[in-house]
Amino acid sequence: MAPKQKKPVKGFSEQAAIGGKFGQFLRILCGCHAIPGRSFHFCGRPFPICARCTGELAGVLIGIPTMIVLGIPRFWVAVLMMLPLIVDGTVQRLTPYESTNIRRLATGILFGIALVFGFLYFHQVCVLAAREILKLLGLDPFAVNQAMQRFLP
Ligand SMILES: [Zn+2]
């Protein structure tokens, strides 16, 4: 079977988009379609990633200091922050509804902030799992608890 050809993005041109190689890196990192009609423009040239991915990236950058200053919210808060993007994207995908770039940006920012929290929840689950595995392997439960406590909030 021949390798699957990458489908070109309609209307997207690597030369036209701003950012050069870094923009190309961002597009690959985000897995972005980079459709110019769904991207912001600067001086008539499209961003290398769409408005939603721009928001997600901004959200991650906002989420890290937010987490440091305010701590980690409850899990359901992060889920609620992700819902607007999921609903907006799903409705757009399944119906003729077309979102706006401002709405894509806003839902992307909320999602990006929640993504930072999601990584921290995942980290905590991994630490808790490692703690239980070490106990199952016969290590001193008190020593394991003490060692793992430094990785938990
Ligand atoms: Zn995108």
Write a structural description.
The protein is mainly alpha-helical. It has two domains: 38 residues, no CATH class; 100 residues, no CATH class. It has five helices and two strands. A hairpin with a 2-residue loop joins strand 1 and strand 2. Helix 2 crosses helix 4, helix 3 crosses helix 4 and helix 4 runs antiparallel to helix 5. The longest helix has 36 residues. Bound molecules: zinc ion. Zinc ion binds next to helix 2. The site of zinc ion has 7 residues, from helix 2.
Give the arrangement of secondary structure elements:
Layout (H helix, E strand, L loop, with lengths): L19 H11 L10 E2 L2 E2 L4 H20 L4 H20 L6 H36 L4 H9 L4
Antiparallel strand pairs: 1-2
Helix pairs in contact: 2-4, 3-4, 4-5
Bound molecules: zinc ion (ZN).
Zinc ion binds next to helix 2.
Unreliable residue runs:
none
The helix-strand sequence is HEEHHHH
Strand content: under 5%
In total, the number of strands is: 2
What structural class is derived from the secondary structure elements?
mainly alpha
| Proportion of helical residues | 55-70%
Question: What is the overall shape?
Answer: elongated
Strand order of the largest sheet: 1-2
How can the largest sheet be summarized? 2 strands, antiparallel
Q: What are the defining features of this structure?
A:
153 residues, mainly alpha, two-stranded antiparallel ribbon, 5 helices, 2 strands, binds zinc ion
Kindly summarize this structure in a few lines.
By secondary structure, the protein is mainly α. It has two domains: 12-49, no CATH class; 50-149, no CATH class. Helices cover 63% and strands 3% of the residues.
